[in-house]
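Newbie here. two chains, one complex. Structure please?
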Amino acid sequence: MSAILEARKVGRVLHEGEVPVTLLRDVSLSIMPGEFVSITGPSGSGKSSLLYILGLLDQCTSGAVYLNGLPTDDLGSASLSRMRLEHLGFVFQFHFLLPEFTILENVRIPMQRLGRLSERDQKDRATHLLEQLGLGDQGEKRPAQLSGGQRQRAAIARALANAPAVILADEPTGNLDTKNGRIVHDIFKGLARNQNTAIVMVTHDQALAATTDRQIHLVDGTLDLES
Amino acid sequence: MISIIPLLLKIALAHLSGRRRQTLVATAGVAMGVGFFIAMAAMMQGFQTYFVQTIVDVSPHIVISDTYRELPRQPLTLIFNPENAALAIRNVKPKEEIRGIRNAGRILRALADMKGVKVAPMLEGQIIYRYGSTDKAATLSGIDPDAEKNITDIESDMVSGKLDNLKTYANGIVIGVGLARDLNAKYGDTITAVSPAGIVRNVKIVGIFRSGITALDNRASYALLKRAQILQNRPNVINAIRMHLDDPNAARSVAADIEKRFSYKAESWQEANEGFMAVFTIQNIIIYSTTSAILIVACFGIFNIISTIVNEKTRDIAILKSMGFGEGDIQGVFVFQGALMGVCGAVAGWGLGYAMSRGLGAIRVNIESELSMDRLFIIYTWTHYAFGGGACVIAATLAAWLPARKASKLRPVDILRGAA
């Protein structure tokens, strides 16, 4: 079985200030389909930077990221957008649902952008996803009418809209109470087990990280190989 | 790409609906620009059209006069082209010619044979009218009333009497309404005419006209050609041939042809009124620049509101980009917002412009300048609406372009990371 997402000797140096800041140095890792991986580390250790580079939202300054075995470092921004649209889903600490749209519409937006399904099929799929995540009766509401846990589940439904191979989550439980955090965590686990979706989750919650298939620990921008 | 336009439009609309009041104000701004443009253009072009119409109706399309545009060339310059030879002839005194168009009868016949052309002879000269204590200098034009009716609209401009009275009254004249007023003379009064030739005659006012062209109304008078020739002591002379064309716009080229053929100066109505045409051009420049200024100011409003929305919606932009929306998509969302405001502004501006045009058309004025008019002339033409609307949509779209570009270049990482 080949890796769905792979980082080879990835480095990231920021040149914004007078002194270059090294965020990541020679990070190599592979994510297998259906694997639930957590990235932990103290703040400033570069875990979010790594996640964004894996998610093709940011580009590394050395090394390369391979999606589905294909190198991504020389792709233009349009191709990168297309790859995100087709293969990747994001969940952040904040839900980032569009406030003017209903939950159902929010979940449909990535499908509309991809344009592979008919309008009817998009609606059916969005409804199905919301049902799966326990939001079957919330589709017509606006994000502001939902609780924090519900919003985060809606955001997950949106991330799943185009059936991505990998979901990248940046502190997805950071804003949630323990109970809701647990629910989100279980959803991820279920996705990895049942739908073969790879999950890469940045978290600083050691207890949650301990229950994932693999834990990657970052210290000062490099992999802590003890983990 | 085309299939996602509805989605981008939907997002654009959602953003605008979140800032309804500012959107309305900015849209109202562009609507004003379009509205003012339409109303101004309707008024100005209405005036210009009315002016040209009046000129074309009242004056002949071409006047052939007994002068030459250029002095006859000296024999020496016929041999040596002065442009190539060092040649200077000084103190050339043009030969004095007997005034009047020579061979007028032949020319008249030749012109009358042309297609789509009507001609009328005229002897134009100075005259002084004397009535009571008033002396008034005027022009006296000797005309053939039947031919004249084919050339100008003077018959329909008569406010009292008619042109044919000239044929029935031995000493009849027809004068402009301004001239009559200045002389304090009425229809039917007998006044004294003194010509530069020293001939004094009593003449009877058998008609008064109002052409709408002030210079004509205040200064012109008409008599039978024969009568004028006697008064000016120039028997059988005419000094102008006036022409009417079926197609007034062809006047320039026809005049040029005639001048080439008969060498007398032939002046088209466009040439005669060139000064006004230049004024019209300046008027148009003023309208276009004033209304563009309004439109530009309005577009700053659009620029502003879209910049505000971009700043407000950085999170939406970031998440859309992370989802896989490209730079073009994001730019599209915000450019659409400008275009939408432009379209709404254009439509509202059409309504406003039409309403203002109607309002201006209802105003009654009393203007006595080059033209006398009792109201503003308004022209309704789709070209003003198309131009105003088109400029508005283009300007609004351009105004949205810069903030839209900025939005498309936002780096999602910077926003997603900071937000919580």
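Moderator note: The CA atoms of residues 107 and 158 of chain A lie 4 Å apart. Chain A has a mean pLDDT of 89. Thread marked as resolved.
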